[in-house]
Amino acid sequence: MHVLILGGAGEARELARRLSGRPGLRVTLSLAGRTRAPEIPDAAARVGVRVGGFGGADGLADWLRAHAVAVLVDATHPFARRISGNAVRAAAAVAIPLVVLERPPWQAVPGDRWTRVPDMAAAAAALGDAPRRVFLAIGRQEVSAFRAASHHHYLVRSIEPVAPADLPPRAETLLARGPFAEADERALLAARGVEVVVAKNSGGDATYGKIAAARHLGLPVVLVDRPTRPEAAATVEAALARLDHVAGSADRGV
Ligand code: NAP
Q1: How far is the CA of 100 from the centre of ligand 1 (A)?
Q2: CATH class name, domain 114-224
Q3: 206: which of 62, 77, 179, 245 fits an S-S bond (Cβ 3.0–4.6 Å)?
């Protein structure tokens, strides 16, 4: 039985690793190819890896048919909306089960000073009229939204460089790949004189350090909410249980 895992988050690699040793199961992990040196499961895990887009929902459906995929797993990042929509449409078109794995969002705890916003444009507006020193920890793809709030000074952190045309005029860039420890984040925020943090509510441990650091330093956080998908499994364990269930059904032809 062939399982295709749409990856891009740490949980996808973990799920692929956990499934790889199972007899009768062939596992392929699909990556978008956004980062030049993606973290892939080591060869010993016996996971096939493919890189690059499929060409929309139709292209994905074609791939599923051509490679006789029996179960599709969407373990992409919670903010990767397009591929998740494509996964829903492609699985329906090919009539195979779709298992969604999405870690839960962070919840505020006492001491957090969060302003929750629906998107990046709202995040830029929420920074206000007075110039501030902003830590932009949102990846590189939506940085251009902050050109609308060009009176702030930005420290922009991303894995791959931001396209120069996307940067607001007063921006410094920092290339780094998580996970980021709270102590390091605290040191960074203090050293750069950051006054407000902008982040996506990605959930998970790998990037929570900046949220904890902001709380510790008493700094406000503008936090972009994600579209909720109540049908998603929240942990690798829960996704494995769903896979066992749907794989069993697919095996019996039900
Ligand atoms: P997106 O907007 O949902 O997807 C854009 C296009 O990239 C998709 O239409 C698809 O191209 C291709 N794609 C995305 N994920 C893919 C995968 N796993 N395998 C093959 N093709 C894929 O996604 P995004 O926000 O640009 O994110 C790209 C990747 O980075 C995702 O895999 C995501 O999990 C990961 N990531 C995203 C974020 C974030 O904040 N958005 C953060 C960390 C990691 P086609 O239509 O041609 O198939």
Answers
A1: 15
A2: alpha beta
A3: 179
